[in-house]
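Changelog-linked ticket: adenosine-5'-triphosphate example.
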Amino acid sequence: MAFFARPASASAAVRIVNPNTQNEPVQPPRKDSSQRRCRNVMIYGYCKFEDKGCVYYHPPAEEVIPTPARSASPAAVTTATSPISAHAVNAPVFVPKASPLSLTSSSPPSAPVTRQALASSSPSSPAPPDYRETYAYSDSEQVAELDTQFYDDSQAHFDVYSAGYAQNMEVPFYTGPSQGYMSEPLDHHLYTPAIPSAFVTSPTDSHFVHTSSELRQVLVERSHTSRSAPILGSNLPEELQGYHTFVPIDTVSSSERKKFFNLDSVVYRAINSTDGIPYVLRRIENFRLMQQAAFNAIEAWSQIRHPNIVTVHEAFTTRTFNDSSLVVVYSYYPNAQTLFEAHMKSTPSALPQHILNGGGRVLLGQSHSLPQLSQYGPMLPSHFASSISLHQLQASGIPERVLWSYIVQIASAIKRVHEAGLAVRTIDATKILLTGKNRVRIGSCAVWDVLTYDQHLDMVALQHDDLQQFGRLIFALCCNNLQATTNGNFQKSLEIISKTYSHDVKNIALFLISKNHPHKNISTVFEMISGRLLTEFDDAFEGMDRLENEMLSELENARLVRLLCKFGFINERPEFARDSRWSETGDRYIIKLFRDYVFHQIDERGNPVTNMSHVLTCLNKLDAGTEEKIMLVARDEQSCLVVSYKDIKACVEAAFRFNFIFMNH
Ligand SMILES: Nc1ncnc2c1ncn2[C@@H]1O[C@H](COP(=O)(O)OP(=O)(O)OP(=O)(O)O)[C@@H](O)[C@H]1O
């Protein structure tokens, strides 16, 4: 009989051998099934399928060492040939291959074993061991739950496969019924559970981070956007200053030229050849650089790293576009929208008429209104849906909580810039980007500094102007109108703010747009909004907790992919075909059997079992190298190995190292 025996020192694997063939040096021809001793008898001393069509040999009762009495305590069930406990190795009941008739006519799975039934079962009345009992021994608390699960699953399996059974009689490999895997209890230490509701203020929503499923959708959409292909025949340069694959971000017809305030401007996404990362290139058309020193501002801006500022990377001039253009390069945020696009640009066609007529008006600042708006979600980009729905309804502004979040973030960005001795100069709804849920970043920085270099403007005045722009922005957002403070709209806008928002909002907005205020600077602004900062901190930290939790579950993927790669490297190497024993010996043999155990399970009708949770459970346990033991059965069913995940992990590591060394020499 051929089997693999690891040196005792190298592995804790326990071999379960067939006693009839123990001394045979080579693999014998396969016996007729009727002569082969039933594995259930070998393991459990008993086969519950003996009278139900099991074709294997069942020795008379006196030949079999009796199975120990059942007990609710973790009793060991020993076998005639193995000193180990079948329960201890989680050995599933061996269901014999039998004629289709005998199995299809077998009775449906037995009724579930309840905790009461287990407790009342007499120790002196031997019964076929049942792997439900394994759970009872290991954790009695789980029995009731597992019983139900087991029974339902097995019933379902019975029905699902019964039709196709007769066609699948050539069973190449078998390790036990699939029900065992379906009811396998997960070791929750190996999995990342959803964040417990006690850890967050709201189990479903958080201010800065989407729910898990939304987050995934948003990230996938961003990934798609940043990989979108360039438009063919767009006449864009193939390469410019180390950037390639140009894609215009905001495609507009030539009749409606985009403006950077009053200058013609185009925004592209392009990939940097050095780091392979996409960037945004803002091109200002027809700009002639008179002095190289104008780029000093770019140098200063590129030093600024702030979570609410779109980082400036570099700038250059070019004639590639058949004019003289200034190009400033920024970090790229896929699917970013300007505050104007997100909150002010009307999309009337996307809204039902009764809403447009005012019937759907909702009170601002009351977050409980938001869920009702989800019905319009599909028309809106999902990543902004929860924060912009109110605005898409053309109500007069945005919720107060969101507004304060913007105010705090923009104030923080301004403070950083002013402290660096610069002025922002682009605090405008068309230049501030919404890059995530309630996350804003001031974009297009530095362009004005280059454009107006020769005007030698006073920095203090420019910083003062920043605060006024900030005030105008708050008015615009509250009133949903870019012209809220001009064209005679001021009084009306003030009324809207007074009616809709808190006194604090009105105060800060008025303070910011005021002229000649003696103590007007960004530090005073922070004194005024200090009461709102803690809410931002709290929400930001909660967002971090959520993201960390999401990250944890993704880490599992990386671990599992690495493991799968190792399997791929080790198993069935065609270049070793000359050595037919390549995967039949040593560590590789255990790995091969384990691979079968994980991926090539078949059910009692010979159908492949594609149970992902079984695969994930096994791989996670393998990665963790647990002490839990499993029984691996050779393809010829002549030998079994009882090994722990820890042993298998050691085998994988050793074989992988061997492969690696071998391939590198
Ligand atoms: N750094 C960036 N990352 C991702 N997208 C950006 C970035 N900067 C700008 N965009 C996007 O490019 C598009 C055009 O930007 P632009 O500043 O021209 O906005 P706009 O609304 O067209 O303003 P204007 O009315 O002044 O032309 C906007 O949709 C904006 O979201």
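Closing comment: Example verified and attached. The chain has two domains: 14-185+571-663, 212-545. The radius of gyration is 35 Å.
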